[in-house]
Every structure is written in C-alpha cells, then in structure tokens.
Amino acid sequence: MDRIGFLGLGIMGSRMAANLAAAGHPLTVWTRTEGKAQAWAAEREGADAVATPAEVAAACDVLITMLVDGDQVAGVVGGPDGLASAGGSGKLLVDMSTIGPAAAREVAAALPAGWSFLDAPVTGSSPRAEDGTLTIMAGGAAVDVARARPLFEVMGTLVLHVGGTGQGQMVKLINNATAAVNAGTVAQALLVGAATGVDLDALVQVMGAGSGASLMLDLKAAPMRAHAYDTLFKLEHMLKDVRLCLEEADRAGVPFPAAAATRDALVAARGRGHGDDDFAAILEAYEGLAGRRLGEARRTT
Ligand SMILES: NC(=O)c1ccc[n+]([C@@H]2O[C@H](COP(=O)([O-])OP(=O)(O)OC[C@H]3O[C@@H](n4cnc5c(N)ncnc54)[C@H](OP(=O)(O)O)[C@@H]3O)[C@@H](O)[C@H]2O)c1
Question: What is the Å distance from ligand 1's center to 140 Cα?
C-alpha cells in the first residue's frame, strides 16, 4: 500500500487523516506547529511525523494538503523545505483546502515536471470529517481522480469528479457562498421573529417542516439562539470563501448581490471579535444592526 503524506492537522485535516490511518493507510504527517504532528502520530499505528514538507514528499508519492488558503498551500509547496524541493516524478498532490480556482491553478503550475495535481475541496464540517462522510469535489485529470479515489472514499461518501483543474474549487466556493447567505438569512429571520414576539420554537419547527427549511436552519438556529459558537467552521474561513467566490463572479462579469451583502455581515461579525468562532456568529452582525440580542426584549443601544 502506498505511503500517504498528509499536511495540515487542523479541525478538518486531523480527522480526515485519522480516518486514513484507521483504514490502514501508512501515513507520514506534518503540520506547522512544532510537536503537534509527532503527538498525533504517536497515537496512531502506521503513522509517523516529520519536521518539514520536503521530508513528507521524500517519503510518499501521494501528498494531501489541508491548510487554510492559497498562500499557505503555495508556501508549503515552494521554498527550500517545501514539497516541490523533493523533486522526482510520478507524485500526485491533492489539495483539499478551499483556496479558490486561481490559486489552485498557480499551485499546479509550480509543481515539478512529472507531478500531477488535483484540487479536491470538501463540504461537511468536522462531524462529517470525523465520520468519513464528507462530500468531495475534484478538479483535474480523470486518471488522477481514479488514483486518489480509494483515499477519497475513506474520507467521504459523495465523491464527484466535477471538471478540470480549479473546477472543484469553483463548485465549492459557490456552495459555501450559498450556505453563508442561508445562515445569514436564518439569523435575520430569528431576529425578526424575536422582535415581533413570535415563539421561536414554533417558528423553527414550522420553517423546518416546509418551504423555509434549510440545512443552515437545522445546524445553526440552535447555536444562534444560545449564542454558543463552538467552532465547526471558523467565521474567518467562511469570509475567505465568500470573498473568493465574489472575486470569481466578478471576473466572470456576474453579480452575486446576496453573497456581497453576506460578506459585509461576516466582516462586521469578525470586527466584533468572532473570527475564530463558528460562522453561526454572523448573527452578531445582524444583532448589531437591529440593536437587539436574541432572547432579550430590550434594545441594546
Ligand atoms: N472546518 C470546516 O467545517 C471546513 C469544512 C470544509 C472545508 N474547510 C476548509 O478546509 C481548510 C482547513 O480548515 P480547518 O477548519 O481544518 O482549519 P484550521 O482548523 O484552522 O486548520 C488549518 C490548518 O492549516 C495549518 N496552517 C495554518 N496556517 C499555516 C501556515 N501559515 N502555513 C502552514 N500551515 C498553516 C494549521 O497548522 P497547525 O495544525 O499547526 O495549526 C492547520 O493544520 C480550509 O481551507 C477551510 O476553508 C473547512
């Protein structure tokens, strides 16, 4: 069995790599914070940790990155200790971070001759990363998707080859911008309900049973009502995705006004100190606009 290199053991990467290890794939791991990869590998059979991305690439032919943005992925690929410095040929880099199509194409172009690249971002937050039930959308050559598919099927349940390099990223960005708009709409609906004296339990139940239903209502209404933003997906990262989607829409000459308004709400929520919280904290931006908090009858200011 090929040894797999996994780089980035954050909320998502640590869980995705754990599933690969549990499925019996020998792993070499690296993550930015010193000592973290060593501690992670010590708890898993068949896993070892190394000090640089270059050492990961020297040990493995299939390399998976799960970092935050394009600059980070480019930084891990390039430089004296980067993946690409290992050289060789026949290696496959699979970037599963959400970095946008332009950055994905730049990373692919920076690889040594004879290496292949897939952009394969995921949807589903940490619970689905943990269960191995992510949705994975891959952009790149069919032959490379076929090579990575057995790994994808350990980490996810719906695995789609959606097009050429960058198309996985574009599908992901459109999905996330839509999810962010939906979450913002749920927050606004809850605030209107609270302000008009509606029973919020009844409102959520009625919406969930009918045309007001959404996955965001199911997942985010309860944390919003409790102001409990335990991080499944950082608000800062959702802001990154909405911004990247708007950049691509702008390049294509197509407006996405709902996403633009949601970007501003995410910026406002981050300004209120919620960048590292779950993006359910978008509620805080709308509470600021309304001058009222959910669950409080009086106006705040
Ligand atoms: N969380 C979700 O629900 C979710 C769902 C779908 C897609 N995504 C996407 O998946 C990616 C990872 O998200 P996450 O939630 O796992 O984020 P996270 O918990 O913040 O983890 C980020 C990872 O990137 C590493 N990193 C941060 N800055 C770095 C740098 N400058 N250079 C090298 N590595 C760096 C971190 O290293 P350390 O381990 O050393 O801290 C960590 O391993 C993002 O692109 C996100 O948009 C997230």
Answer: 22
**Binding site membership of 242 for ligand 1 (Cβ less than 6 Å):** no
CB 68 within 8 A of CB 97: yes
93 lines ligand 1 (CB under 6 A): no
Looking at residue 297, its pLDDT comes to 54
d(CA 293, CA 291): 7
pTM over 0.90: yes
Answer yes or no: is the C-beta of 140 below 6 A from any ligand 1 atom: no
* pLDDT per residue as tens digits for the range 28-85: 999 999 999 999 999 999 999 999 999 999 999 999 999 999 999 999 999 899 999 9
Using DSSP, state whether 95 is helix, strand or coil: strand
Strand pairing report for 47-49 and 134-139: unpaired
Tens digit of each residue's pLDDT (9 = 90 or more) over 111-131: 999 999 999 999 998 999 999
Give the tokens for residue 114.
């004879």
With a 6 A CB cut-off, is 29 part of the ligand 1 pocket? Answer: no
Residues classed as catalytic = 172
**Quick one: which atom of ligand 1 is closest to the CA of 121?**
7
According to CATH, the superfamily of the domain at 170-290 is: N-(1-d-carboxylethyl)-l-norvaline Dehydrogenase; domain 2 (1.10.1040.10)
Please report, for the chain, the start and end positions of each structural domain, with discontinuous segments joined by +.
Answer: 4-163, 170-290
Expressed in angstroms and rounded, the spacing between residue 122 Cα and the centre of ligand 1 is 12
Task: Name residue, tokens 């350990």.
Answer: 154
- The closest residue, in CA terms, to atom 42 on ligand 1 is 10
